[in-house]
Design brief:
Layout lengths: L7 H9 L5 H19 L2 E4 L1 H16 L10 E5 L26 H8 L3 E6 L33 H8 L5 E6 L5 H7 L2 E4 L19 E6 L2 H11 L29 E5 L9 H16 L3 E5 L7 H16 L18 H12 L2 H14 L5 H21 L5 E5 L15 H6 L5 H6 L3 E8 L5 E8 L4 H14 L10
Parallel strand pairs: 2-3, 2-4, 7-8, 7-9
Antiparallel strand pairs: 1-3, 4-6, 5-6, 5-10, 9-11, 10-11
The structure holds glutamine (GLN).
């Protein structure tokens, strides 16, 4: 077995036994990246020098007997999160050559634990997309079938984990961007409760919806990464000042006595039959572990896509106003005056999907349309929040599919934004409500593509979700499915 094949927890165990050093593990991961990235395009940039330097430092720390679970672990970071001195493109031409002068809070926290950053992962431009095809660096490819998408927008992080090009990763989830690529690539991903993880130093797309979260090969690794990144940060005004539990504590507790809700609106005809069958099998497994099932209704989920695709573009149109060719990144040459410079820079710097969202968002916020679109969408959002709250009075968590289909072919949905938006039907309402959600593997299709199951929880209920997901993972073999590369 090669070091790159290990999970985060397995690697940490070997560090503790002094059977492997962080430099050796990091070298192994960097070699793996060198051999696979040209084909899979999981990374936008690889930070070998920085990684080997931090690995050396981590080895020094461990020599002194300090074995933090994240010490010396090779971690990948979605290219929307700032690392001081490392280019941060957000998958966009407009931020080409932008080098942030500071670390995001999640990065400084992981640096304090001596994690090793191996590179910045590919993503849909500014996290807008569900396939990691909208990237100025070209599409990421799914390691299970390189003709297929990785899912998105954190597709590079998911694919890097699935193909052993890192042991842990950070993604961001505005409407499903951690859970859906985790599902398409057969790994685990957690979208934390809104406010649980600092967004300081993450380039904003839709501030009221998004969270940074961990992605990993195993659920126990997610818990360790969450321990590293969660908690109050005075630099993020939406960060919640509440104590953070040790997320590893409940993992081993069995599920007896818990109550799971099955929202009937998430099991309709539009879902691929193989996905539907695998998720229903997962529900049976959970039931056999002593969980009581109850059918519930989340009728407002039908309006989630509409509300999301008004609110998210509205926020994006405002957030992306700062990219004007003056303060950051790319500036078009040859403009006659300032206005033209703005126009040409933004026309050339942004990709088609980003331009579409800025136009949509500007429209729904404009005088005369604000009440009909933006205000209405916010009202729908409130109804969604209330409905989740009332359902969680009866059940401890919900079980749903992550995506109505497995990974689709590269190019298949690119020309039809509406069908691309429909891919998110099971993940968007989580973000509108601000609740946590987790995706774990629950099977493979006949053609060998991963299928995922989603567990949704109460606000700040990450510990329950990690427990359910870990117990489910340990009771099944799905996470052990191996791909050959
Ligand atoms: N696919 C959704 C979108 O395109 C969600 C993206 C995300 O979570 N960042 O907006």
């Amino acid at each position: 077995m090669q070091p790159y094949e290990l999970t985060l927890t397995e690697l940490h165990e070997l560090f503790k036994k002094r059977e492997l050093s962080s430099v050796e593990a990091t070298r192994s991961v960097l070699d793996r990246i060198a051999s696979l990235n040209p084909q899979l395009n999981s990374y936008i940039s690889v930070t070998s020098d920085m990684a080997l330097k931090s690995a050396q430092e981590a080895d020094e720390v461990m020599k002194r007997g300090n074995f933090d679970p994240l010490c010396g672990i090779p971690v990948a970071v979605k290219d929307v999160i700032c690392i001081e001195g490392i280019e941060c493109t957000c998958g966009s031409k407009i931020l080409h050559n932008y080098v942030p002068p500071y670390d995001a809070t999640v990065i400084s926290r992981l640096k304090d634990r001596h994690a090793v950053f191996v590179g910045k992962t590919n993503m849909d431009e500014f996290a807008m997309g569900s396939s990691t095809e909208n990237s100025a660096s070209g599409p990421a490819r799914n390691p299970w079938n390189t003709e297929c998408v990785t899912g998105g927008s954190s597709g590079g992080s998911a694919a890097a984990l699935a193909s052993d090009q890192c042991m842990g990763a950070l993604g961001t989830d505005t409407g499903g961007s951690i859970r859906q690529p985790a599902c398409f690539c057969g790994i685990a991903g957690l979208k934390p409760t809104y406010g649980r993880v600092s967004r300081y130093g993450m380039v904003a797309f839709a501030c009221s919806l998004e969270q940074i979260g961990p992605m990993a090969k195993r659920v126990e690794d997610l818990a360790l990464l969450m321990n590293g990144i969660a908690g109050y940060d005075s630099m993020d005004s939406t960060s919640v000042n509440m104590p953070v539990p040790d997320y590893t504590l409940d993992l081993k507790k069995d599920l007896k006595g818990l109550k799971a809700g099955i929202p009937k609106e998430f099991f309709t005809e539009g879902t691929d039959p193989e996905v539907d069958a695998a998720v229903k099998q997962a529900i049976k497994t959970i039931e056999s572990m002593g969980v009581e099932l109850q059918e519930v209704s989340l009728s407002y989920n039908d309006y989630a896509i509409t509300a999301y695709y008004i609110i998210a573009p509205a926020e994006a149109s405002s957030n992306l106003a700062r990219f004007d060719g003056v303060k950051y990144g790319y500036r078009a040459e040859g403009a006659q005056d300032l206005r033209e410079m703005y126009r040409v820079t933004r026309t050339q710097g942004f990709g088609r999907e980003v331009i579409r969202r800025i136009m949509l968002g500007t429209y729904v916020l404009s005088a005369g349309y604000y009440d009909a679109f933006y205000r209405k969408a916010c009202q729908v959002r409130t109804l969604i929040v209330k409905q989740f709250k009332s359902v969680f009075e009866d059940v401890d968590f919900l079980i749903t599919p992550v995506s109505p289909m497995p990974a689709f072919k590269i190019g298949e949905k690119l020309e039809d934004p509406l069908t691309m938006y429909l891919v998110d039907v099971f993940t968007l309402s989580t973000n509108l409500a601000g609740i946590p959600g987790i995706s774990v593997p629950c099977g493979l299709t006949q053609s060998g593509l991963p299928i995922g199951v989603q567990f949704l929880g109460r606000h700040y209920g990450e510990d329950t979700l990690l427990r359910v997901a870990h117990q489910f993972e340990q009771a099944t073999e799905h996470h052990k499915a191996k791909l050959t590369l």
